[in-house]
Each structure stands twice: as structure tokens, then as C-alpha cells.
Amino acid sequence: MLSPRNKKLGLVIAWYVVIILCLIITVAPFLWTIANSFKENHEIFAQAKDFSVNTFIPGTTFSSYIEIFEQGFGRAILNTAFVAAVSVTLGILFNSMAGFAFAVFDFRGKKLLFAIVLLTFAVPGDAIAIPLFMMIRSLGWFDTYTALIVPAIANGLIIFLYRQFFAGVPAALYEAAKVDGLSWWSIYLKIFMPLAKPVTIGASLLLFVGQWESYLWPLIATPSPDMQMIQVALSRFSTEFSSIWNQQFAASTIAGLLPLIFIYRYQKQFISALTGVDLK
Amino acid sequence: MTLLSTKLARKKWLAPLLFLLPATIGLLAFKIYPIILAFWDSLYFVSYNSGEAVREFVGFENYQFLLEDFVFWRSVEATAWMTVLINPIQIGCAFGLAMLLQRQSRYIKLFRTLFLIPIGLALPIATIMWGLMFDPNQGLINGMLQTLGFEAQPFLTSQKQALWVIIFIATWKGVSFWMLFLLGGLQDIPKQLYEAVTIDGANWFQKLRYVTLPMLKRTFLFVFVADTTANFVLVVPMILLTQGGPRQSTNVLMYEAYRSGFNFQDFGRSMAIITILTAITLIVIAIQVLFLGEKKGAK
């Protein structure tokens, strides 16, 4: 018979074993990807067959990185950075304005309009990609940055996040300012927005990650090589040059690491914006 | 005086309008209108004669063709299997992980951070990474299996295994995300509830059955609906890895819609499938709203 103390120790050990197994499944593929991005293809294949610690230790060649940049991967990074920067700027401005209006003003149709806002973030984006494609073609936006940026700006979830935050701002804080003759625009810009910094960080990350990780939409909306976004460029290495593995690993490493750095830095705000959960 | 008050009244109406206008136009034009457009275009036959689009109103003919089409029903079948398998698997794993990560320990912050990795890695990256892991000839997984003395598996090239591989990849990518909601829910359960039943002598399973699960009902319902609607339009692994094959085993409706439009230029058919998918999604969401009674669960 186990003593209670031994039983407790056993449970703790079991917990560590299970969690570490889960961690291996979670992290190993990405470690393999990073390690392989610094190897020659024949090394990758040989080490996958003769599976050992070396399989997960980075090689020493940068050739795959040089090759992907020679094939226009840098252009895809710049495209994505530009599209993401504009989407974040306009998305924060317009969605926070709408959130402000929902929190501060009373107007007819407010409930209905807010219900529409909630509905829009319940419908997954990929479902409307094909009709949206027909739309931007008739608008003449096909294969332009406009097609990538404009449809991504208005975002129901971000309006919701700002509304929730702004609804908690005490009226006393801005009523005095209103009496002093400050305009609603100044109140929004000088009182509300500075208070909402955590929401803005989380929402910016959502918009940035949304563009950085979008695939189906840029795949169909901007097919020309000069307009490629990072995920589309990455997938080209997997579909057109499918036998050259180290390039796929190098492109995946670059495309994967950058958002991870931001998410790691701002994980609290990111989780809170993404899920509404504040972890203790 | 009257003039002044009308001016004030107009102003009162003007400020909310200006603040709301840009985002509202964006939502209506790019989130709501495409749903309507999909339905509208599904009533047309669209063909391309030397690049020139020819549109012809055909009523519900596209739907009628779908119902008579063997490929469509095969696709419905694949989608049904996908839905029935992937959602319980993802939610089950997410709950297990949330239970594991709920425990306080010295390294818990580090563990939780590491489990954020799949959330940060885009689905195309996850798909390509795992696609190479599962490569039948040179992939790591077959390498491991053979090192351990097992037979190499066909994975994505097998009609039986392809859907399971995609489920695995999507689950790897999705579990951490859904786990966050459940972990948040677990942390919101008041400690006193557990203390009370511990005094009554409840064991681990009874605590789970009578405290944890009932307290998480709303969170579970939300995660279930959100996960189901998200997986319903899962298409990236099919585009990148299987093209719906082998033998249509992974040709889910969303991929069939994509393929109809972009491979076969039959946008009427594509839009009819999108309309069916959107309608089912909206019904699922409506059921959720009914069950929850209010919109709080949407967050």
C-alpha cells in the first residue's frame, strides 16, 4: 500500500511525464523545421531515416536561406509587412471608433447594429473568401494591395473588445470634459484611447497575425508573384519545388518565428484579446 | 431657441454616425454582403468564353445539379466524417491539456508559453511542416516507425489514412487555442466548491463529474460551436497536401467549393456550396444563442 506522501509524489511525476510528452509533440516539429533549415537536403533525408539526436540539431549551411531570398521571398515579407502595417493602423482607428460609439452614445438601432457586429465574428472568414473574390473583381481591386487590406480592416471582434473596455470607463471622467467644451473626437483621442492601451496592443496583434497568417484570401485575390503574401510564397516552395525540402524549412522558420516573437512578448494581451481570458 | 435645439439634436445624431460609419460600412460590405452575394450568384450559371464572363439566371438549377451529383454527396460524406471526428477529438484534447495546465507548478508559466507555439504558427506552416513529417518516403514519422521496428505507413497517399492525418494536423494546430478558453473557465470555478465536496469525501472523478463539468457548461458549449464552425471551412491542408484525394476521401465541401470555382470556373456551383455551408453555420450559431439565452457566450 502506498503512503499518501508517495502517492502524491507519484502523481507529480506522472503529471510531469504527461506534460513533457505533450510538449514534445507540440514543439518537436518546429525544432525539426528549424534544424533542417540549416541542412542540405541529403542530410535531412538521411537523418530522418536514421533517427537520432542529430535529427534535431541544426546544420551549418545557410544555402537554403540564400536560395529562398533569390526566389523572391524577401518581396513576400515586405508585401506582408506593408499590408499588415496599414491594416493594423486603419483597423485600430476605425474599430476603436465604433467601439467608442457603442459604449458612449445612445442611438436608435444600437442593439441591432451590435448584434450584426457579433454575428460577423461568428462567421469564419474563409467561408466568404469566394464571394469576396467575385466582389473585388467587379470593383477592379483584383491583384492589388487594396484587395488585401480593405476587407480586413473592419473587424467585429475588435469592435467588441473596445466596446467592452470603453463601457467600463466611468462617465464622470468625460462628462466634465464635455462641459468644458471638448469635442467627442478629442474625448475619444485624448481620454479613451490612452486608457485602452492593453486592448490596443492585443487588437494590433490580432490584426497583424491575421494578415501574416492569411493564406486562402491572398492566394485567390493577388495571384501575381510580385503581390504574394508570405504564406502564399511559402506554400509555393511546397507545391512547385516539393522535392527541395530545406527551402520549405527555411521559409517556414522565417514565417513562423516572427509572429511567435511578438506573441511571446505580449502573451498576456494577446491571449486576452484572442479569447477574453485573463489567465492567473 | 428652436433653431438651437434642432442644431443640438442634429449634432447628437451626427457624432455616433461619424464614429460608426467607417467600421460599419466595412462590416456590411466585406462580411455581410458576401454572404448575400454568394446566395445571389448561386442562382446564376457563370461561364467564361475566352475570358469574357457570361452570366445566365438559372434559379435553383445549381442546387438541383448538386443534389443529383455523386461528387457532391461524396463530399457531404467526407465533411460529415470530418465534423463528427475532429470536434470531439480537439475538444477532448483541449480539455485534457487545460486540466494538466491548471495545476500550479514552478515551471507552469514556461509550459503555458510553449503551448502557445501552435497558435502562433500559421496553418499553412503547420500543414507544410507536418506534411513533411508524414511524408511516406522521407518523413520523420516513418523514419521513427521503422527505427522502432514498425512498418512504414502510406499516410496522405492512403484513402483510409489521409483524413486522419489532416485531423491530426488541424488538432495539433487547434488544441492550444481551445485549451485557453477551457483553462480560463477552470480558473473561474470558485475554490470553495472543491473544498466543500472534498469535505464530503468526493474523489477525483466525482469532483470532475459534479463540480468541474457542470461549471464549465457554457464554456464547453461556446468552444463546441466555435470549433465546429471553424472546422467546417477547414480547407488549407486540402489545398496544400491532398487536393481532396486520394479518391475524394478528403474532398470536404469547402474544398469542393474552392475547386468548383478556381479549378473548373463553375462559380455558380461554388456559390451554391458556400451558401449551403453558411446556412448550416448560421443555424448552428442560432442554436447556440438559443441555448445560452444571451450573447455572452460569443466571447
Model description:
The complex is a heterodimer of chains A (280) and B (299). Chain A has 280 residues and is mainly α. Helix content of chain A is 74%, strand content 0%. Chain A has 15 helices and no strands. The model of chain A has no long low-confidence stretch (mean pLDDT 91). By secondary structure, chain B is mainly α. Chain B is 73% helix and 4% strand. Chain B has a two-stranded antiparallel sheet. In chain B, helix 3 packs parallel to helix 8 (162-188), helix 3 (70-102) packs antiparallel against helix 11 and helix 6 (123-133) packs across helix 8 (162-188).
Sum this structure up briefly:
The complex is a heterodimer of chains A (280) and B (299). With 280 residues, chain A is mostly helical.
Whole-number mean pLDDT of chain A: 91
Number of helices of chain A: 15
Profile the largest sheet of chain B. 2 strands, antiparallel
**Tally of strands of chain B:** 2
Distance between the termini of chain A: 36 Å
Unreliable runs of chain B: 1-9, 295-299
The level of helicity of chain B is: over 70%
Which key terms come to mind for this protein?
heterodimer; A: 280 residues; mainly alpha; 74% helix; globular; B: mainly alpha; 73% helix; disordered N terminus; disordered C terminus
Topology:
The complex is a heterodimer of chains A (280) and B (299).
Chain A: H1 4-37, H2 41-49, H3 63-70, H4 73-104, H5 110-120, H6 129-139, H7 145-153, H8 156-167, H9 172-179, H10 184-195, H11 197-212, H12 216-221, H13 230-239, H14 245-265, H15 267-275
Chain B: H1 2-41, E1 44-49, E2 52-57, H2 61-67, H3 70-102, H4 108-114, H5 117-120, H6 123-133, H7 140-147, H8 162-188, H9 191-199, H10 204-215, H11 217-232, H12 236-242, H13 253-262, H14 267-292
Antiparallel strand pairs in B: 1-2
